[in-house]
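Sample 3 of the quickstart, ligand pyridoxal-5'-phosphate:
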Amino acid sequence: MYSEKVMDHFQNPRNVGEIENASGVGTVGNAKCGDIMRIFLDIDDNGVVRDAKFKTFGCGAAVATSSMATEMVKGKTIQEALQVTNKAVMEALDGLPPVKVHCSLLAEEAIHAALWDYAEKHHIKIEGLEKPKNDISEGEEEEQY
Amino acid sequence: MIYLDNAATTRTAPEVLEAMLPYFTENYGNPSTIYALGSAAKKAVNQARRTIAEAIGAKQEEIYFTAGGSEADNWAVKATAEAYGGKGKHIITTKIEHHAMLHTCEYLEKQGFEVTYLDVDGDGLVDVEALKAAIRPDTILISVMYGNNEIGTIEPIAEIGAVAKERGILFHTDAVQAFGQVPLNVDELHVDMLSASAHKLNGPKGIGMLYIRTGVKIRSFVHGGAQERSRRAGTENVPGIVGFGAAVERAVRTMDERIKKETELRDYLIGRIEKEIPYCRLNGHRTKRLPGNVNFAFRFIEGESMLIMLDMKGICASSGSACTSGSLDPSHVLLAIGLKHEIAHGSLRLTLSAENTKEEMDTVVEELKKIVAKLREMSPLYQDFMAKQK
Ligand SMILES: Cc1ncc(COP(=O)(O)O)c(C=O)c1O
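Result:
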């Protein structure tokens, strides 16, 4: 069902983890629907993405798109990072099954959310970036086990 | 490979295949013909019918072969609705039935029938009192599955059957997961109809049966020739029927031993997972449970990821996550027992057979521990949870 690239990025995900005191953190998706992505960006003074990490709850495609998206934004300027679209991520993975396309959208949104967070923290405006719409549902952790 | 998806399908037993082969090769005759070649096939079909009837305490003329469990479920419900629709338009079933039942009921709702879908408790059990309360003067059918395919819970079928009998309402049970795994007797259970499928008990795929008690007015499902007492026309799937018969014969002969072995393996696996993997929950009733069923939800992770990683270790399993159900929602069964969506997404079903070993269970636990830990390490939900714990 998945391409070799997707399987490779699922089996050996790049950039798993977190960045302490990250320049920007974006979390998108919804646990109810089965995917949440959190992307951490470390952006230097010249506005270049020095490092990117992720944490993802989701299926094989969700993990692989997170891995690929973080790979693709590393070393890019903010404007270049904005151009890492879901289509670009999908192409880099040699495609996704139709039911998994939303995972690549989530990856794009997670990058945008992290950039938005960075912009807010630094009181700047990033040309072409809109406030990300996705938000996770929180405060549902009291389940008894 | 470690095969732990026996609820999806089972390996055709070598003796079953062997019994079938002659009916592809030398005994290829049509059972409806009068020459010896045809009568040999007819004899074999009737022998299988007798074996299956005996296994559930039925008469052989009450067994109707179908192309599997889905067809048997469709037939039971649609043909009852048609035959008894004049008497009433209300059907009672449960929220945890197989889609073969649920989608058929949804279809009938579009045809003007009303369906009550009973809730189940946290273990997946139907409440008999709630069922009694749902009965109306126009109720024509009650259908409750014997054992659930996802969480393994065994329903109080004899009790429900007694209620249906007392109220004079037809009672059907989908015993696809139970037939051949646990003893079933149609009189003790007071069932009027029962669905079964050969491929769940080491028989071939695409063959099943519907038991219909004598006296039940049920319409023909396929019109045509006189096969299956004219109720389900079409030249018989002779090799399939012979294979089904051989599988039932084998299942009856080995049942006690298999139940003992599978229950031991099941409880051993459940025990180790509960002890060694934190933040998990056993789904389904602990004891009123199919012998081979293990179903867990692991918090903070998603099922499909688990399945791919297990597959990489040669372990075949299944999950009720949305990604594996092909829709955006996780399994309706897991939601019906009260799991939150995000927890249902992290479910894993392991269904054993008597061919599995304790060593395999140990391997599965060791691999699962690593996989769950790796996915949690990757999970933002786990990160948030751990941050809150501090
Ligand atoms: C409870 C139940 N009912 C019906 C079916 C459908 O059976 P079949 O695959 O033979 O059509 C299945 C099998 O998936 C099942 O588990």
